[in-house]
């Protein structure tokens, strides 16, 4: 089973955007790749089923049309409350766990050559009362993409995340700094350089602010960055 894992320094930093962009870039290179969102909270009910918004975004960008069975493998744990996976699982009575997730991913891998997995929240978010997202990442042992925001405070959050990943023996392919607003300053310009220097990561890339993420697949600059990153991932996988 081959793949890569997209994680972030926290919630709302742009993991879904990067995961979807990489999925499309790999498919544009004719790689047989499918998305995985192991745990999704904040789901909404559509036609009697819980719809995973992050996964659906990736599916739309890649132009996929998976059936119900594939959708179940792509996102085995779905919850309505917008909260940590362990709390959503506790409230529902069904906790996500690493063994089940990996089993579903192995079955999904029979339908493709490569998987792009997107975590929930940050690296240390609890999956259940005993396991964290990091435990899943260690079990998979895939190259990792760390997504970070661009503004004040991101250096500390990014370096802490990088330290945790390295201490766990995981390979960081790149840190992607996502500009969440159009505001720029000497701080937002210097932060990616500081993360690259003090984090000692092999590659740091910037995503400029995009007011309409639904049109990101048509953004030439964004997709060029994703294509470069996809090429790097294929080299290491």
Layout of secondary structure:
Elements: E1 3-8, H1 15-28, E2 33-36, E3 39-40, E4 44-46, E5 49-51, H2 53-62, H3 68-74, E6 77-78, H4 85-92, H5 98-108, E7 114-118, H6 133-140, E8 144-149, H7 154-167, E9 172-178, H8 186-199, E10 204-207, H9 220-236
Parallel strand pairs: 1-7, 1-8, 2-7, 3-6, 8-9, 9-10
Antiparallel strand pairs: 4-5
Helix pairs in contact: 1-2, 1-9, 3-5, 7-8
Helix content: 40-55%
* Range of strand content: 15-25%
Number of strands: 10
For the record, the count of structural domains works out to 1
CATH topology heading: Rossmann fold
The poorly predicted ranges are none
N/C terminus separation = 10 Å
- SSE succession: EHEEEEHHEHHEHEHEHEH
Number of helices: 9
Describe what is shown at a glance:
The chain has 237 residues and is of the alpha/beta class. 43% of the residues lie in helices and 18% in strands.
Structure write-up:
The chain has nine helices and ten strands. With 237 residues, the chain is of the alpha/beta class. It has one domain (3-236): Rossmann fold (3-Layer(aba) Sandwich), CATH 3.40.50. The strands form three sheets. It has a six-stranded parallel beta sheet, with helices on both faces. Helix 7 links the parallel strand 8 and strand 9. Helix 1 crosses helix 9 (220-236). The longest helix is centred in the C-terminal third of the chain and has 17 residues, at 220-236. It is globular. The model has no long low-confidence stretch (mean pLDDT 94).
């Amino acid at each position: 089973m081959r793949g890569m894992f997209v994680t972030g320094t926290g919630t709302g930093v742009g993991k879904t955007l990067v995961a979807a962009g990489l999925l499309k870039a790999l498919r544009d290179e004719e790689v047989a790749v499918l998305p995985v969102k192991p745990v999704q909270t904040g789901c909404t009910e559509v036609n009697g089923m819980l719809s995973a918004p992050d996964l659906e975004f990736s599916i739309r960008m890649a132009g996929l049309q998976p059936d119900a069975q594939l959708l179940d493998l792509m996102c085995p744990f779905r919850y309505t409350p917008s909260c940590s996976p362990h709390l959503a699982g506790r409230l529902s009575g069904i906790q996500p766990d690493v063994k089940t997730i990996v089993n579903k991913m192995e079955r999904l891998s029979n339908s493709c050559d490569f998987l792009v997995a997107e975590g929930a929240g940050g690296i240390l978010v609890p999956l259940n009362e005993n396991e964290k997202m990091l435990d899943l990442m260690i079990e998979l042992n895939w190259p990792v993409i760390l997504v970070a925001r661009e503004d004040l405070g991101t250096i500390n959050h990014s370096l802490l995340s990088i330290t945790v990943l390295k201490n766990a023996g995981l390979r960081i392919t790149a840190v992607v700094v996502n500009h969440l607003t159009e505001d720029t300053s000497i701080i937002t310009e210097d932060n990616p350089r500081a993360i690259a220097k003090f984090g000692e990561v092999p590659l740091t890339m910037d995503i400029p602010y995009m007011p309409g993420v639904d049109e990101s697949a048509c953004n030439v600059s964004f997709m060029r960055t994703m294509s470069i990153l996809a090429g790097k991932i294929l080299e290491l996988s």
